[in-house]
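Async update (no meeting this week)

Hi team, since we skipped the sync, here's where things stand on the single-chain job. The sequence we agreed to prioritize is pasted below, unchanged from the tracker. I ran it this morning and attached the output directly underneath so nobody has to dig for it. Comments welcome in thread, and please keep replies under the output.
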Amino acid sequence: MYRLVAIDLDGTLLDTNKEISQRNKTAIHMATEKDVKIVICSGRVYSGARIYAKQLGIMDPIIACNGAIIRENTDGKVIYSDFMNTGDCLRILDIFHENNIYFHVYAGETMLTERLDYNSLKYYEKNKALPKKDRVEIDIVTDMERKLRELDGKVLKFVAVSDDSELLATVRKKLSVVETVDVTSSNYNNFEVVNKGVNKGKALERLAEVLKIPPQEMIAIGDNENDIPMFNFAGLGIAMGNAEDCAKEAADYITATNTEDGVAKAIEKFILG
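Output:
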Protein backbone atom coordinates (compact mmCIF):
# COMPACT_ATOMS: atom_id res chain seq x y z
CA MET A 1 0.00 0.00 0.00
CA TYR A 2 1.33 3.41 -0.99
CA ARG A 3 1.02 6.32 1.47
CA LEU A 4 2.86 9.08 -0.37
CA VAL A 5 3.19 10.23 -3.98
CA ALA A 6 6.02 12.64 -4.88
CA ILE A 7 5.16 14.45 -8.11
CA ASP A 8 7.34 16.61 -10.32
CA LEU A 9 5.65 19.64 -11.94
CA ASP A 10 7.02 20.63 -15.35
CA GLY A 11 6.62 17.91 -17.95
CA THR A 12 4.85 15.73 -15.38
CA LEU A 13 1.83 17.12 -13.52
CA LEU A 14 1.63 20.20 -15.75
CA ASP A 15 0.61 20.06 -19.40
CA THR A 16 2.26 22.11 -22.14
CA ASN A 17 0.26 25.18 -21.04
CA LYS A 18 1.62 24.75 -17.46
CA GLU A 19 -1.85 23.77 -16.24
CA ILE A 20 -3.19 20.80 -14.23
CA SER A 21 -5.87 18.82 -16.05
CA GLN A 22 -9.20 18.10 -14.39
CA ARG A 23 -8.52 14.35 -14.43
CA ASN A 24 -5.20 14.89 -12.63
CA LYS A 25 -6.92 17.10 -10.04
CA THR A 26 -9.66 14.53 -9.47
CA ALA A 27 -7.24 11.59 -9.09
CA ILE A 28 -5.10 13.56 -6.61
CA HIS A 29 -8.18 14.59 -4.62
CA MET A 30 -9.36 10.95 -4.45
CA ALA A 31 -5.89 9.83 -3.32
CA THR A 32 -5.87 12.43 -0.50
CA GLU A 33 -9.27 11.12 0.61
CA LYS A 34 -7.53 7.76 1.14
CA ASP A 35 -5.01 9.59 3.40
CA VAL A 36 -2.26 9.45 0.77
CA LYS A 37 0.18 12.36 1.06
CA ILE A 38 0.81 14.30 -2.17
CA VAL A 39 4.22 15.98 -2.19
CA ILE A 40 5.14 18.37 -4.97
CA CYS A 41 8.81 17.74 -5.71
CA SER A 42 10.06 20.39 -8.12
CA GLY A 43 13.08 22.23 -9.37
CA ARG A 44 11.05 25.42 -8.99
CA VAL A 45 11.44 27.91 -6.17
CA TYR A 46 9.06 27.24 -3.22
CA SER A 47 6.60 30.04 -4.09
CA GLY A 48 6.48 28.85 -7.72
CA ALA A 49 5.59 25.32 -6.58
CA ARG A 50 3.15 26.39 -3.87
CA ILE A 51 0.82 28.00 -6.45
CA TYR A 52 0.03 24.50 -7.77
CA ALA A 53 -0.35 23.01 -4.28
CA LYS A 54 -3.00 25.69 -3.69
CA GLN A 55 -4.79 24.77 -6.93
CA LEU A 56 -4.88 21.15 -5.77
CA GLY A 57 -5.96 22.02 -2.22
CA ILE A 58 -3.13 19.92 -0.73
CA MET A 59 -1.36 20.86 2.50
CA ASP A 60 1.58 18.43 2.53
CA PRO A 61 5.22 19.67 2.58
CA ILE A 62 6.81 20.90 -0.65
CA ILE A 63 10.25 19.87 -1.93
CA ALA A 64 11.62 22.79 -3.96
CA CYS A 65 14.80 23.85 -5.77
CA ASN A 66 15.59 20.27 -6.77
CA GLY A 67 15.71 19.06 -3.18
CA ALA A 68 17.77 21.94 -1.73
CA ILE A 69 14.86 22.90 0.53
CA ILE A 70 11.75 21.31 2.07
CA ARG A 71 9.12 23.62 3.53
CA GLU A 72 5.77 23.21 5.21
CA ASN A 73 2.98 24.16 2.85
CA THR A 74 0.83 25.55 5.66
CA ASP A 75 3.18 28.17 7.11
CA GLY A 76 6.35 28.02 5.00
CA LYS A 77 8.40 26.68 7.94
CA VAL A 78 11.69 25.18 6.72
CA ILE A 79 11.96 21.44 7.43
CA TYR A 80 15.34 21.02 5.72
CA SER A 81 17.71 23.15 3.63
CA ASP A 82 21.15 22.88 2.03
CA PHE A 83 22.56 26.27 0.96
CA MET A 84 25.48 26.80 -1.40
CA ASN A 85 28.93 27.99 -0.40
CA THR A 86 29.61 31.61 -1.51
CA GLY A 87 33.03 30.70 -2.93
CA ASP A 88 31.36 28.09 -5.16
CA CYS A 89 28.71 30.62 -6.20
CA LEU A 90 31.39 33.09 -7.34
CA ARG A 91 33.26 30.40 -9.32
CA ILE A 92 30.03 29.37 -11.04
CA LEU A 93 29.27 33.04 -11.79
CA ASP A 94 32.69 33.50 -13.42
CA ILE A 95 32.17 30.46 -15.66
CA PHE A 96 28.71 31.68 -16.69
CA HIS A 97 29.99 35.18 -17.44
CA GLU A 98 33.01 33.90 -19.41
CA ASN A 99 30.66 31.86 -21.62
CA ASN A 100 27.93 34.50 -21.88
CA ILE A 101 25.10 32.12 -20.93
CA TYR A 102 21.76 33.21 -19.46
CA PHE A 103 21.24 32.09 -15.84
CA HIS A 104 19.17 32.81 -12.76
CA VAL A 105 19.74 32.11 -9.08
CA TYR A 106 17.28 31.00 -6.40
CA ALA A 107 17.97 32.53 -3.00
CA GLY A 108 15.30 32.03 -0.36
CA GLU A 109 12.05 33.16 -1.98
CA THR A 110 13.71 35.24 -4.67
CA MET A 111 14.76 34.62 -8.25
CA LEU A 112 17.82 36.70 -9.11
CA THR A 113 18.64 37.47 -12.73
CA GLU A 114 20.74 39.92 -14.71
CA ARG A 115 18.11 40.18 -17.45
CA LEU A 116 14.53 39.06 -17.97
CA ASP A 117 14.58 36.08 -20.32
CA TYR A 118 13.48 32.43 -20.39
CA ASN A 119 12.08 31.42 -16.95
CA SER A 120 12.48 34.82 -15.29
CA LEU A 121 10.54 36.49 -18.10
CA LYS A 122 7.80 33.82 -17.84
CA TYR A 123 7.48 34.36 -14.08
CA TYR A 124 7.54 38.15 -14.57
CA GLU A 125 4.63 37.93 -17.01
CA LYS A 126 2.74 35.41 -14.86
CA ASN A 127 3.15 37.59 -11.75
CA LYS A 128 1.02 40.30 -13.34
CA ALA A 129 -2.08 38.12 -13.05
CA LEU A 130 -1.36 36.82 -9.53
CA PRO A 131 -2.14 38.32 -6.11
CA LYS A 132 1.01 39.66 -4.40
CA LYS A 133 1.22 36.77 -1.92
CA ASP A 134 1.40 34.21 -4.76
CA ARG A 135 4.01 35.96 -6.89
CA VAL A 136 7.57 34.76 -7.35
CA GLU A 137 9.80 37.62 -6.26
CA ILE A 138 12.16 38.60 -9.09
CA ASP A 139 15.22 40.75 -8.48
CA ILE A 140 16.98 42.15 -11.58
CA VAL A 141 20.56 42.51 -10.40
CA THR A 142 23.17 44.85 -11.90
CA ASP A 143 26.13 43.56 -9.86
CA MET A 144 25.63 39.82 -9.36
CA GLU A 145 29.00 39.24 -7.68
CA ARG A 146 28.22 41.80 -4.99
CA LYS A 147 24.71 40.39 -4.57
CA LEU A 148 26.00 36.84 -4.09
CA ARG A 149 28.46 38.04 -1.45
CA GLU A 150 25.60 39.83 0.36
CA LEU A 151 23.49 36.66 0.19
CA ASP A 152 26.16 34.54 1.88
CA GLY A 153 24.52 31.27 2.99
CA LYS A 154 21.18 31.92 1.30
CA VAL A 155 21.69 30.63 -2.26
CA LEU A 156 19.91 27.34 -3.07
CA LYS A 157 20.44 26.83 -6.78
CA PHE A 158 21.73 28.19 -10.11
CA VAL A 159 19.93 27.48 -13.39
CA ALA A 160 21.53 28.03 -16.82
CA VAL A 161 19.24 28.11 -19.85
CA SER A 162 20.06 28.17 -23.56
CA ASP A 163 18.58 27.00 -26.85
CA ASP A 164 22.15 26.26 -27.95
CA SER A 165 22.71 22.66 -26.82
CA GLU A 166 26.44 22.83 -27.61
CA LEU A 167 26.88 25.88 -25.37
CA LEU A 168 24.97 24.12 -22.58
CA ALA A 169 27.17 21.03 -22.89
CA THR A 170 30.37 23.12 -22.97
CA VAL A 171 29.48 25.18 -19.89
CA ARG A 172 28.25 22.11 -18.01
CA LYS A 173 31.58 20.39 -18.68
CA LYS A 174 33.53 23.46 -17.46
CA LEU A 175 31.66 23.32 -14.15
CA SER A 176 33.34 19.99 -13.37
CA VAL A 177 36.23 22.04 -11.88
CA VAL A 178 33.88 23.00 -9.02
CA GLU A 179 34.06 19.67 -7.19
CA THR A 180 31.66 20.57 -4.36
CA VAL A 181 28.57 20.97 -6.57
CA ASP A 182 26.32 18.66 -8.57
CA VAL A 183 24.90 19.46 -11.99
CA THR A 184 21.67 17.99 -13.33
CA SER A 185 19.01 18.83 -15.90
CA SER A 186 15.25 19.31 -15.59
CA ASN A 187 14.59 20.23 -19.23
CA TYR A 188 16.19 19.81 -22.65
CA ASN A 189 17.35 23.47 -22.63
CA ASN A 190 18.80 23.82 -19.11
CA PHE A 191 21.04 22.52 -16.39
CA GLU A 192 20.89 23.22 -12.66
CA VAL A 193 23.68 23.56 -10.12
CA VAL A 194 23.23 22.67 -6.44
CA ASN A 195 25.45 21.59 -3.53
CA LYS A 196 27.02 18.16 -3.90
CA GLY A 197 24.63 15.47 -2.68
CA VAL A 198 21.53 17.66 -3.08
CA ASN A 199 18.80 16.00 -5.13
CA LYS A 200 15.12 15.09 -5.02
CA GLY A 201 15.87 11.58 -3.75
CA LYS A 202 17.88 12.85 -0.79
CA ALA A 203 15.10 15.33 0.07
CA LEU A 204 12.51 12.55 -0.17
CA GLU A 205 14.66 10.44 2.17
CA ARG A 206 14.73 13.33 4.67
CA LEU A 207 10.97 13.75 4.40
CA ALA A 208 10.46 9.99 4.86
CA GLU A 209 12.23 10.28 8.23
CA VAL A 210 10.06 13.24 9.27
CA LEU A 211 6.77 11.65 8.16
CA LYS A 212 7.81 8.14 9.25
CA ILE A 213 6.86 6.63 5.89
CA PRO A 214 9.21 3.92 4.54
CA PRO A 215 10.40 4.26 0.92
CA GLN A 216 8.55 1.12 -0.18
CA GLU A 217 5.30 2.96 0.60
CA MET A 218 6.23 5.85 -1.71
CA ILE A 219 5.65 6.51 -5.42
CA ALA A 220 7.73 9.07 -7.35
CA ILE A 221 6.53 10.42 -10.71
CA GLY A 222 8.74 12.49 -13.03
CA ASP A 223 10.07 13.04 -16.51
CA ASN A 224 13.73 14.03 -16.44
CA GLU A 225 17.29 13.43 -15.26
CA ASN A 226 16.72 15.31 -11.98
CA ASP A 227 13.85 12.92 -11.10
CA ILE A 228 16.02 9.78 -11.24
CA PRO A 229 17.27 10.06 -7.60
CA MET A 230 13.67 10.04 -6.34
CA PHE A 231 12.88 7.03 -8.57
CA ASN A 232 15.84 5.28 -6.95
CA PHE A 233 14.63 6.08 -3.42
CA ALA A 234 10.88 5.47 -3.74
CA GLY A 235 9.41 1.99 -3.80
CA LEU A 236 7.90 2.71 -7.22
CA GLY A 237 9.42 5.08 -9.77
CA ILE A 238 7.09 6.14 -12.59
CA ALA A 239 8.30 7.96 -15.71
CA MET A 240 5.98 9.94 -17.95
CA GLY A 241 5.38 8.84 -21.54
CA ASN A 242 7.09 12.08 -22.60
CA ALA A 243 10.06 11.54 -20.26
CA GLU A 244 13.69 11.66 -21.33
CA ASP A 245 15.14 8.22 -22.13
CA CYS A 246 17.40 8.30 -19.05
CA ALA A 247 14.34 8.74 -16.80
CA LYS A 248 12.41 5.96 -18.55
CA GLU A 249 15.35 3.58 -18.13
CA ALA A 250 15.56 4.36 -14.39
CA ALA A 251 11.80 3.97 -13.77
CA ASP A 252 9.86 0.84 -12.78
CA TYR A 253 6.83 1.82 -14.85
CA ILE A 254 6.00 4.20 -17.70
CA THR A 255 2.65 5.99 -17.68
CA ALA A 256 0.99 8.19 -20.33
CA THR A 257 2.34 11.63 -21.29
CA ASN A 258 1.74 14.90 -19.45
CA THR A 259 -0.86 15.86 -22.07
CA GLU A 260 -2.69 12.52 -21.65
CA ASP A 261 -3.25 12.66 -17.86
CA GLY A 262 -0.26 10.44 -17.14
CA VAL A 263 -0.21 11.34 -13.43
CA ALA A 264 -3.92 10.56 -13.02
CA LYS A 265 -3.54 7.23 -14.85
CA ALA A 266 -0.66 6.25 -12.55
CA ILE A 267 -2.61 7.18 -9.41
CA GLU A 268 -5.72 5.37 -10.66
CA LYS A 269 -3.69 2.22 -11.37
CA PHE A 270 -1.53 2.05 -8.23
CA ILE A 271 -3.60 3.81 -5.55
CA LEU A 272 -7.26 3.99 -6.52
CA GLY A 273 -7.24 0.49 -7.98
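Quick observations from my side:
The chain is about 40% helix and 20% strand.
The mean pLDDT is 95.
Reply here if anything looks off.
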